[in-house]
Design a protein that fits this description.
Layout (H helix, E strand, L loop, with lengths): L1 E4 L2 E8 L3 E4 L2 E4 L2 E5 L21 E5 L17 H14 L5 E6 L1 H12 L4 E7 L6 H13 L2 H12 L5 H15 L5 H10 L4 H9 L18 E6 L7 H10 L3 E6 L6 H4 L1 H14 L3
Parallel strand pairs: 5-6, 5-7, 7-8, 8-9, 9-10
Antiparallel strand pairs: 1-2, 2-6, 3-4
Helix pairs in contact: 1-2, 3-4, 4-5
Length: 286
């Protein structure tokens, strides 16, 4: 489905009922927006790792310039626009309050939205993300100290926002796969790659520009809603101490660190990951 909002056209998809019959009444399920990472990824990865439709109405979104959303002017691919696009889509769908699950870069969008529109967020889930530009310095240090020569080489494209082709982007993710996921599988990677619509332009815009300066650290205390912060103990790009900081600064936050996970907690420890989200959405008062 497509929504014409602001100056762009966003692709979104919905899985699950908003109202479900239970006995003699209709019970409302909360709308849960799932925000993908990158920048430059798409929503498709969520569809194999988030069977939560019995608990919430799932709303998948491709950020502008990503996935099936319109490309438009790459200069508009900014964190600020991603936040405002989300607010425009919420209004377009006629929703009052929403739950948010943001993974990696999607978690940065979710933080910004919850700070800017606190009255619109009932519950917030932040997965393997960071509150500021400082994550880049830490990730670069990790690769310098622990990365293989090939990993150091392909990360040079990331740090400089200098990808020039989909072939380079494929090489980057193939080379870095064992660091992103503790259960990385080369065959599965190729299958996922072919069904995902990635944008190296959006990734370049992020790492070459706005991700170098964004900082929500001083504003996290303004987020009033119940928040679940999820981290992977072996995450190389959004190291767990960034999640610890987020959980410490958001007043109603709880932290869960997955001991056997990298950046891809949803695949490394999927069952425990879903259990944590289910428990949070079931019992956290929104």
């Amino acid at each position: 489905m497509y929504a014409h909002v602001r100056d762009t056209v966003l692709y979104f998809d919905i899985d699950g009922m908003g109202l479900t019959p239970q006995g003699g009444q209709m019970v409302e399920r909360p709308p849960l927006f799932l925000l993908h990472g990158g920048p430059g990824g798409d929503h498709s990865g969520f569809k194999s790792t988030h069977p939560l439709r019995d608990l919430a109405q799932l709303i998948f979104l491709d950020h502008r310039g990503c996935g099936r959303s319109d490309e438009g002017d790459a200069a508009t691919y900014t964190l600020d626009n991603n936040i405002e696009d989300l607010e425009a889509l919420r209004a377009h769908l006629g929703l009052d309050r929403i739950c948010l699950l943001g993974s990696s870069y999607g978690g940065m969008v979710a933080q910004g939205y919850a700070i800017r529109y606190p009255h619109r967020v009932s519950n917030l889930i932040l997965v393997c993300t960071a509150p500021s530009f400082r994550f880049i310095h830490d990730a670069r240090t990790f690769i310098t100290e622990h990365g293989t020569p090939d990993q150091q080489r392909v990360c040079g494209w990331l740090w400089e926002g200098a990808f020039s082709s989909m072939e380079q982007l494929h090489e980057y993710y193939r080379t870095m796969g064992p660091l992103y996921s503790r259960n990385w599988d080369a065959v599965e990677f190729e299958a996922v790659w072919h069904r995902t619509r990635r944008s190296f332009v959006a990734l370049n815009r992020g790492f070459g520009d706005f991700l170098r300066t964004f900082d929500f650290t001083e504003q996290l205390s303004q987020i009033p809603c119940p928040t679940l912060v999820i981290a992977g103990a072996h995450d190389w790009i959004c190291a767990p101490h960034h999640s610890q900081l987020i959980a410490r600064l958001i007043p109603r936050a709880q932290l869960k660190i997955f001991a056997r996970s990298g950046h891809s907690v949803s695949s490394d420890e999927n069952e425990l990951y879903l259990q944590a989200i289910r428990g949070f959405l079931t019992y956290a008062p929104g």
